[in-house]
Specification:
247 residues; mainly alpha; particulate methane monooxygenase, chain B; two-stranded antiparallel ribbon; 9 helices; 2 strands; 64% helix; NH3_CH4_mOase_A; NH3/CH4_mOase_suA_sf; monooxygenase
Length: 247
């Protein structure tokens, strides 16, 4: 007959080993999130959120939050549905920002001697916090898709304005009026196709003059709703366990 202290100590040892295994499993999961989410942003957003002079007032506030809500929606569904953790979107965006900061600091600032301001990453964390907050308070993916998705897309530009506003100051450079971000693009020539010579903001929203940015934020807010619904469904497919009967 096994004594009670021995049984308790053995159970405590099992719990300790289980927690160690969970922490060991958590590290590769976070690395996978960093790698896949970062790769997705590179392939979809690309230069719009990479170079400083591409962070304009028209397409950058639309493209970046729309592509940025994909992984947070899928991971948020899995963590909330199975673990009741309302931190999926925040964890995902923090992993993305960490991966982008490390990559751009070592690959561009230290290796190719680019100023870190020229490749400074934008942040999606404020929108992710609101997304998780709406899910926590409403406990409904439908409400989160409508209200949280709209907030995620709408607050992107205001949340990053404090970071990038100094580089939008107008300056006169070679008898031309441009911003400090444009001057950086001309001063540090990039390899490949000379996209720094293109007018980034050319498009129909320029018709509204100073109202281009609010319209961009509104478009991002509206379009983020169906994207959240789509990617939360993808998260549901990948986080659902299925069993196959033996024949």
């Amino acid at each position: 007959m096994v004594s009670q202290p021995t049984t308790i100590s053995r159970a405590a040892e099992i719990v300790r080993i289980s927690r160690i295994f969970d922490f060991l499993l958590l590290v590769p999961i976070l690395l996978v999130i960093i790698g896949t989410y970062h790769l997705s942003m590179i392939l979809t957003v690309g230069d719009w959120d990479f170079w400083l002079d591409w962070k304009d007032r028209q397409w950058w506030p639309i493209v970046t939050p729309l592509m940025g809500i994909t992984f947070p929606a899928a991971i948020q569904y899995g963590l909330w549905k199975h673990l009741r953790l309302p931190i999926g979107a925040t964890v995902c965006t923090v992993c993305l920002l960490l991966g982008m900061a490390i990559t751009r600091w070592f690959a561009y600032h230290l290796w190719t001697n680019y100023p870190i301001n020229l490749v400074l990453p934008a942040t999606l964390i404020p929108g992710a916090l609101l997304l998780d907050f709406v899910l926590l308070t409403s406990r409904s993916f439908f409400v989160t898709a409508i209200l949280g998705g709209m907030l995620f897309g709408a607050v992107f530009y205001p949340a990053n304005w404090a970071i990038f506003a100094p580089f939008h100051q107008p300056v006169e450079y070679n008898s031309s009026l441009m911003t400090l971000a444009d001057v950086s693009g001309y001063s540090y020539i990039r390899p490949g196709v000379p996209e720094y010579l293109r007018i980034i903001e050319r498009g129909v929203l320029r018709t509204y003059d100073t109202y281009a940015t609010p319209l961009s934020a509104f478009c991002a807010a509206v379009l983020a709703v169906p994207l959240y619904g789509l990617w939360s469904y993808i998260g549901k497919l990948f986080s659902t366990t299925r069993f196959i009967d033996k024949f």
